[in-house]
Amino acid sequence: MSKLTNPILKNHNTIFASKISRSILLGFVLTILGSYEAKAQFTFTGQLRDRVEMRAGQGTLQQQGDKAALFTSQRTRLNAGYSGYRFKIFTALQDVRVWGQDASSINRTTTEANNGILLHEAWAEIFLNDTVSTIQNLSIKAGRQEISYDDQKVLGSLDWLQQGRRHDAIVFKFANKGWIADVGAAFNQNKENNTGTIYNGTNPAYGAGTNGIGTMYKSFQYAYVGRKFFFGDLSFLFFKDDFNKYTLVTAGTPAVTTKVNGTGVWSRNTTGIYFNTNVTRKLNLTGSYYYQGGKNKDGRSLNANLFSITSTLQVGRKLFIGPGVDFLSGDDGTKTVTADSKDNRFDPLYGTPHKFWGSMDYFYAANGFGKQGLLDYFFKIKYNAKDNLSFALDIHGFESANTLSNGAGGKLNSYLGTELDLLVKYNLTKIVNIEAGYSFMKATNSMASAAVKNVANADLNPQFAYVMLNIKPNFLAKK
Fold this sequence. Notes:
The protein is mainly beta and 479 residues long. It has three helices and 20 strands. It has helices spanning 7-39, 103-109, 445-448, and strands at residues 41-56, 69-84, 87-98, 117-127, 137-145, 167-176, 179-187, 219-229, 232-251, 256-278, 283-294, 304-315, 319-328, 374-386, 389-399, 404-405, 411-412, 415-427, 432-443, 463-471. The protein has an 18-stranded antiparallel beta barrel. It is globular. The N and C termini lie far apart (66 Å). Residues 43-448 form the Alginate export domain. This is Alginate export.
């Protein structure tokens, strides 16, 4: 007997096969999209940081009778990033201003120094190693970027400053099996020139360096090598920054001296090591040593050094304490400086001085403090009251690292003052942070002297206080 085909069963099989085909196709599409999503990712974050500051001697001493300053500054950032197959790009648009500034009038009547809108970061990173490579990372990162290493003593983002710090540079990056090796370079020009490469680094809108050196490097080259060992972290840094040569020309009646940039550069070399190790389970030591040679920005020969060591001892579960000392060499204030004399003042490059030498920013920040260097011995206390609440107290004793002149052939007391910094941090959420600080200094007459801050009739009890709200949303985060 012949077999008869059931039409109902045939139709059912056709529908079933069609559903399977659609399911397979849908699964294939989802697999492709999932694979693409894994390889390409878009990020969109931001930051709004308001800081109310009361300054009654912040940065430098006030004169007796001066009124305290009170203002609110704001940083606003929009960060957009995109990562794909063997590449990544990132941009950070930033606006920084004081409440009450009106951009529509400022930008029409004054210099670019008051234009708060700028491109803080804009870089691309290309990965030279494929996904199947045994090397963890081999890439080139080019564009405007933050450059930060170790504890940020000599190279850091300077995040405390509302505008922060950035560099236009290219960096070759390598990482594998605990090793990190970066080689970077930068070359600055004021504009698209048709001839020559003379660079005017005295841009009033963005000062580079520390201790108010007042000029931007023309170029730099550096190499950084770091390794994680069983005992902790160890790294080596070589950094050479170049400053455009100049001559001083005096002309006219009355005579006026002006700086005229010429060809060539003066090169400054900084070489050193950094370590971070746990001596015991509860005792940590962090230290560094750097030597500075070559020529400074004015062409004088350099012979300077920095030495730093900090200890942190955990006492109980929540309390951390520890002493430390920083030494940054300087010039003998009683000796006459000539064009042929050595410059012994160490400049901690492009680091984050606010983090180390007092919250009042008296040293190695925008305001200069003479050329005699700094000896800072300090004691730090931190108490983590809760997971989202911490208190910190830093006590600094500041002293000149070299002899201070009284201007009349004699010497001044080398002790400059004692500073107390109190800090409170509270994380309302993972996105919203509130921070408050208060600083008080008991300064000496040596701090007010012409050799250091040069303030007549100075108030030797400066104070500084602030409250800061920091919100860092992720606009693409799932609720």
